[in-house]
Amino acid sequence: MKIFSESHKTVFVVDHCPYMAESCRQHVEFDMLVKNRTQGIIPLAPISKSLWTCSVESSMEYCRIMYDIFPFRKLVNFIVSDSGAHVLNSWTQEDQNLQELMAALAAVGPPNPRADPECCSILHGLVAAVETLCKITEYQHEARTLLMENAERVGNRGRIICITNAKSDSHVRMLEDCVQETIHEHNKLAANSDHLMQIQKCELVLIHTYPVGEDSLVSDRPKKELSPVLTSEVHSVRAGRHLATKLNILVQQHFDLASTTITNIPMKEEQHANTSANYDVELLHHKDAHVDFLKSGDTHLGGSSREGPFKETITLKWCTPRTNNIELHYCTGAYRISPVDVNSRPSSCLTNFLLNGRSVLLEQPRKSGSKVISHMLSSHGGEIFLHVLSSSRSILEDPPSISEGCGGRVTDYRITDFGEFMRENRLTPFLDPRYKIDGSLEIPLERAKDQLEKHTRYWPMIISQTTIFNMQAVVPLASVIVKEALTEEDVLNCQKTIYNLVDMERKNDPLPISTVGTRGKGPKRDEQYRIMWNELETLVRAHINNSEKHQRVLECLMACRSKPPEEEERKKRGRKREDKEDKSEKAVKDYEQEKSWQDSERLKGILERGKEELAEAEIIKDSPDSPEPPNKKPLVEMDETPQMEKSKGPVSLLSLWSNRINTANSRKHQEFAGRLNSVNNRAELYQHLKEENGMETTENGKASRQ
Amino acid sequence: MPTVVVMDVSLSMTRPVSIEGSEEYQRKHLAAHGLTMLFEHMATNYKLEFTALVVFSSLWELMVPFTRDYNTLQEALSNMDDYDKTCLESALVGVCNIVQQEWGGAIPCQVVLVTDGCLGIGRGSLRHSLATHNQRSENNRFPLPFPFPSKLYIMCMANLEELQSTDSLECLERLIDLNNGEGQIFTIDGPLCLKNVQSMFGKLIDLAYTPFHAVLKCGHLTADVQVFPRPEPFVVDEEIDPIPKVINTDLEIVGFIDIADISSPPVLSRHLVLPIALNKEGDEVGTGITDDNEDENSANQIAGKIPNFCVLLHGSLKETLFIFADSKKKSNLMMSLFEPGPEPLPWLGKMAQLGPISDAKENPYGEDDNKSPFPLQPKNKRSYAQNVTVWIKPSGLQTDVQKILRNARKLPEKTQTFYKELNRLRKAALAFGFLDLLKGVADMLERECTLLPDTAHPDAAFQLTHAAQQLKLASTGTSEYAAYDQNITPLHTDFSGSSSDRM
Predict the structure, then answer these.
(1) Integrator complex subunit 14 C-terminal domain: which residues (chain B) (predicted)?
(2) Given A333, A376, A456, which is nearest B218 (Cβ)?
(3) Distance CA B16, CA A327 (A)
(4) Of residues B102, B316, B350, nearest to A422 (C-beta)
(5) Running DSSP on this structure, what letter comes out for residue B395?
């Protein structure tokens, strides 16, 4: 495939001389009277288009199809020629659309039949066409800049489509010679210029058009090489429909197009809304969409007529879409389409249906009766594409199961967490250029890679490899620490998280440490906290170079980790108390009965008294009116499940099995907090109060009730 | 990339080869030896490859249809009989049929032709085929180039000197040329013996059957993987950039996109991404495919217990909204390759312009994940989305005129639509220089005015007259009245619109 082939640049040169104002002598009835109103009224006389109107509307149709199918990299320059050349647009991409061309044509207007024919000539236009072909396009410029020393690889080829009314074959020859001569001259000029390019290849397509019913004075001639640079072909065509048909055939030839007819499209009748009839719509697209048919020489596809190479169309059957479910089809190509008859009712029904976001699968009609879906029509952002779907056997069929491969036996991947990770690392287009502080252009994709790098600096893949990512309490810190820059609020949240953890440690809250691979109870509580703190430090340390604020988070963490001796002492006491918990069971039971909702409100007040904000955070977390965060992480089994407690000495097969089942089950739901903290399946409520105030709490509780 | 092994079983393959030692070998034994080596290699390192075995002489036969069962292929090698003369063309036609029936025309295939360099005699010989190559019709087209992307590897059970002594080598080179240069000829270096055959097949294996190993990366999360089938180099533009683009062995994840946004994109090829465990020498330990070999199995088991990023990624892709799976029970990670270039999908925009959502002012996916920044909208609408005017068929023109007429009869209720349609027609007529139409429609509106029933709203007559007058003025083509961007606006009358102020 070549980007800079002849079809990169197309110059239209349309004759605007007085004789083009002549009628094409093909009448159009425009006054179609409605039956019941026609009594006594004579319809207005039919009108006919001028040669100019026929030429312009046919060339606009050529451009319409081309722009629909190749909105980029295929450019048109429109030139009108009379007493001079009028160049209506430039090669720039902004000038490449129908509206621009239509507005420019309206400004030129129809040819003036009273102008002096002696001063008018198509030659002005042809000279201007050669000149414009030497001008470099944005795409050529970009490619040359990119290729640097290989800039000469960028080709400069083009096509001139000239619509005129020639006098004779020798007149045609004169036009060809003129183009030949002009190319020669301009190539000399271009050789000494930086912003002009020499023409390597030019295809001249001369279309002689004349009124219907007249004899042509010019004969057709197939493509012929006039020089190594110039080839020329001559088409002698009657005006009106015939000219439009010719240009339609040419646009298909020039841009390698093919035709597909969608058949069996069900459509509501305009008159009878309840009935629906089936319609056909013909679409044009790049011929590669038919690559499978061309190669296999499938000739049994219905509808392909044998009238000539460009009359052929391949018929595909509409399959009414069932739902709008998202499916990823194996698609080997997608090609923009253009309806042949864009304004007809069936065409606009089909295109509107697709533009509204529905996709349609297309089926190959086969004699054998087997159903083969080979294509799909679908719109993306207001453009309709014909997708080629693979309908043959897949070489990827029966792939090995991932569970049999590397890492396939591991069962505790952090699937949900990584799902969230992917969601956070989704991409979005940044169309406006952004600049870095040093003024250089920032590439959004590089930013995306940077972000992934930061987010994965510490990212354990399995649940049993991590403690902190199984703790809801760490989330506020873990979610912001990966950021490139922190706000003051972020730092504060991180600090709060750390204080919160300190508090949890002081209260001896259990941690979701995995016991996979360890025997017995697993590590002691203070060892668990040591592991947790180490892991948290690893996470924060991975990001300290991001900013000074990250540094501050680490400082806070380090300060909180190194506890004063009395704290250590208290912890030891705490552990002893834990051992005695069984004995205090009764007291707990009593307390349990006295519990009331108001208590917590009151207790909050007690605690807030003289307590710093860390306590507050804790209270809110534990108070009954704060619901659990909705996106709770799956929890691992706790280290103190009763089963584990009993399983001292050799482990029985039953306990191994039930452990396994419990582990699996525990992952499916969040463990009830009471059971987590229970001793022998009994939970002590409001433990923290006891810890804060000793036995007084109970008394206070009683007092409050009175 | 499926493989078709095409084995010559003509009599010339039974020519004996003089080898030091007791046993006497024939060329077909050497060929079988080489193919055994190839099959053994594939069975261990390339086991997802589908391979078929075709034998040919003057006729051809599909011995083993496409399979991954290398034992069957191996067995077939030992059950080959000897037949008559070599007739390459019909065998190649056979290959075309077999491949197209199984895989269609889009899947690249490798054809391994094993022959002794004797190209047959008379009709059907390669010399005859090549001599008549230029005199063929569409119906008996020479099978090369193959009607699917292909590589043709010719394994000669002969050494270079032997082939050069006749025109055999030349003919075989022609074959590769006819396949658009896709392929290669291998000959035996030195005397014909088992060792040299092995080294020849070794070269083929190195060229075409070495597994593609890569590293899948997502930031610091990485996994060693095998990509199957091997991604092939791709030429984007033979003129500007003739060097084929090859796939980097670092497969780097740059971000994620919802499957609905990707929306069945066109891809060059699809590949399985299989996690592998590499030992220090870089040899593969296990690709995760069950194997009877016990040593490998235990190695597999160990590898199975080490957490692997691929499995995590696969699991999360399946679990979340990024549905990404084969409908079958067994599933695996799959990678699709887009055509290389800055903008593989128009509806995603330029790849380099895709950045992290955290850089956007507000989340483009919405707080409730209810919207998406994709697809990108093109600057200009396509013709079918912008109500263009085409009058090439008379029906197109008649429909547009009818629309105006219909609305004219419902004035003043339809004043806005009437003028909208009128202006659309006016613009197109001016652009096409079709001024007669403006005059004609003006006449028609004037006639409509005279046909108005007595019950008609008085405003209707005013608007029709005004519109007709404006069209007539435009039809003169004078720049004052025929400006393209200027629209005919409704006449301001005492009747038009209750909101207008009356002075």
Answers:
(1) 389-496
(2) A456
(3) 59
(4) B316
(5) H
Q: Which two tokens stand for residue A53?
A: 């109107």
**Coil, strand, or helix at residue A426?**
strand
Residue type, B350: K
**Preferred mutation among B398, B424, B432, B451 to probe A, highest tally of A CBs within 10 A:** B432
Q: What is the pTM of this model?
A: 0.81
Tokens of B435: 């001024």
Task: Look at the block and give the residue holding tokens 């902190």.
Answer: A468
Where b means 16+ CB within 10 Å and e means fewer, A11-38 reads: bbbbbbbbbbbbbbbbebebbeeeeeee
- From the list A48, A410, A453, the residue facing B220 with the nearest CB is A453
User: Which residue is associated with the tokens 């870095």?
Assistant: A436
Q: What is the dihedral of CA B378, B383, B384, B388, to 10 degrees?
A: 130
pLDDT tens digits, residue range A108-156? 999 999 988 888 999 999 999 999 999 999 999 999 998 888 888 899 9
Q: What is the DSSP string of B472-484?
A: HHHHT--TTT--T
Give which of A263, A316, A311 is closest to A292, Cα–Cα: A316
Predicted ipTM of the assembly: 0.86
Kindly tell me if the per-residue pLDDT of B320 is higher than 60. no
What are the Cα distances from residue A186, in Å, to A131, B146, B261?
7, 44, 48
Write out pLDDT tens, residues B258-296. Answer: 888 888 888 888 888 888 887 544 444 444 333 334 444
Question: In this structure, what token pair is assigned to residue B276?
Answer: 């592998």
Q: Pick from B238, B311, B354: which is nearest to A2 by CB?
A: B238
The three state secondary structure string of B172-205 is HHHHHHHCCCCEEEEEECCCCCHHHHHHHHHHHH
Beta bridge partners of A360: A377
CA distance B55 to B150: 19
Q: How far is A359 from chain B (nearest CA, A)?
A: 10
Which residues neighbour B172 within 8 Å (Cβ) at sequence distance 6 or greater?
B117, B119, B126, B154, B156, B163, B185
In whole angstroms, what is the distance from residue A453 CA to residue B7 CA? 52
Q: How far is B178 from chain A (nearest CA, A)?
A: 16
- CA neighbor of A247 nearest in space, from A55, A69, A72: A55
User: Which residue in A295, A407, A447 is closest to B356 by CB distance?
Assistant: A447
Alpha-carbon span A639 to A645, nearest angstrom: 9
Chain B residues within an 8 Å CB radius of A402: 275, 288, 310-311, 314, 330-333
Residue A705 pLDDT class (50, 70, 90 cuts): very low
pLDDT of residue A628: 42
Q: Which residues of B touch A52 (CB under 8 A)?
A: 433
Nearest C-alpha neighbor of A28 from the set B442, B474, B397 = B397
Q: Please provide residue B228's backbone torsions phi and psi, each rounded to the nearest 5 degrees.
A: -130, 135
Q: List, in sequence order, every residue forming a beta bridge with A79; answer none if it has no partner.
A: A13, A87
Q: Which of A395, A401, A410, A451 best tests the B interface by mutation, with the highest count of B CBs <10 A?
A: A395
CA distance A572 to chain B (A): 37
Residues on chain A touching B310 (C-beta within 8 angstroms): 402, 405-407
Judged by CB atoms closer than 8 Å, whether chains meet at B398 and A153 is answered as: no
Residues within 8 A of B (CB atoms), A 396-415 only: 396, 398-410, 413-415
B186 and B221 Cβ atoms separated by less than 8 Å: no
Contact call for residues A77 and A91 (beta carbons, < 8 A): yes
